């Protein structure tokens, strides 16, 4: 997978070099290019924003800067390539995404624009986008990017305006880090154990239940006895029950769309 990020703060994307994403870069599963938007600014001050038409507070990012930037990235212009922050001593993994088959393939890159006005980002989006070959992120600042940039970009990209939550950030860079990590971890070969993401929260519409490790007793708190039973069916049922109960307590609305068995409904007090 190829990720390109256009931003006025390239250093903000340094976390993409670390941990599992850095390992994916080192293995050849992922490549990341970071592009400084100001290189497409044409005035002496390298300005990227101006006052909004119609008045109002704040500044709006200029189309004559963003347009050429997205044109260049779509055409394959390279930015500053990020390298893994530390060696992971792993052999390269090749063709890890070759099993993805789409119906009618649209070869345009996917352009993701983080914005509070966008569609909520979900685990389903992360799964779908983990099969993409090329994702471009446009990091807005101030009052956002001139809407004509988004409309025009649809000629060269499949555009998705996305929100990571009902709150407002200073800029899109933090949202890019969130979305990139959620997507890249689902690419085959990035996580060592496939079950790690198959049992994630939201993978089956529920929140994930609690997890435990050694020691068996800690500060007077015990690990649930069922986890030592050796009975995998019983352990799986316990984990399902815990996921159901946590979801009911924290995010009950998720249960409306979850597939529930009679045993599940009994756990929830509905049976």
UniProtKB/TrEMBL annotation:
Its main location: cytoplasm. One of its GO terms (molecular function) is tRNA (guanine(37)-N1)-methyltransferase activity. It comes from the Bacteria. It holds the Pfam family tRNA_m1G_MT. Its EC number is 2.1.1.228. Homodimer. This is tRNA (guanine-N(1)-)-methyltransferase.
């Amino acid at each position: 997978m190829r990720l390109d990020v256009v931003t006025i703060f390239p250093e903000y994307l340094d976390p993409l070099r670390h941990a599992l994403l850095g390992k994916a870069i080192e293995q050849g599963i992922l490549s990341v290019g970071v592009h400084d938007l100001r290189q497409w600014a044409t005035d002496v001050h390298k300005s990227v924003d101006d006052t909004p038409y119609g008045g109002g507070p704040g500044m709006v990012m200029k189309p004559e800067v963003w347009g050429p930037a997205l044109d260049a990235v779509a055409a394959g212009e390279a930015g500053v390539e990020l390298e893994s922050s530390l060696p992971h001593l792993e052999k390269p993994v090749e063709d890890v995404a070759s099993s993805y088959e789409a119906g009618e393939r649209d070869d345009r890159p996917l352009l993701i624009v983080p914005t509070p006005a966008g569609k909520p980002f979900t685990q389903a989006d992360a799964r779908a986008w983990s099969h993409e070959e090329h994702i471009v992120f446009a990091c807005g600042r101030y009052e956002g990017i001139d809407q004509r940039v988004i409309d025009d970009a649809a000629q060269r990209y499949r555009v998705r305006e996305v929100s990571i939550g009902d709150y407002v950030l200073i800029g899109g860079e933090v949202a890019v880090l969130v979305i990139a990590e959620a997507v890249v971890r689902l690419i085959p070969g990035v996580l060592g154990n496939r079950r790690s993401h198959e049992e994630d929260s939201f993978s089956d519409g529920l929140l994930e239940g609690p997890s435990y490790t050694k020691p068996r007793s800690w500060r007077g708190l015990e690990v649930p006895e069922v986890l030592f039973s050796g009975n995998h069916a019983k352990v799986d049922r316990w984990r399902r029950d815990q996921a159901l109960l946590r979801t009911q307590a924290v995010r009950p609305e998720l249960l409306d769309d979850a597939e529930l068995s009679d045993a599940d409904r009994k756990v929830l007090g509905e049976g």
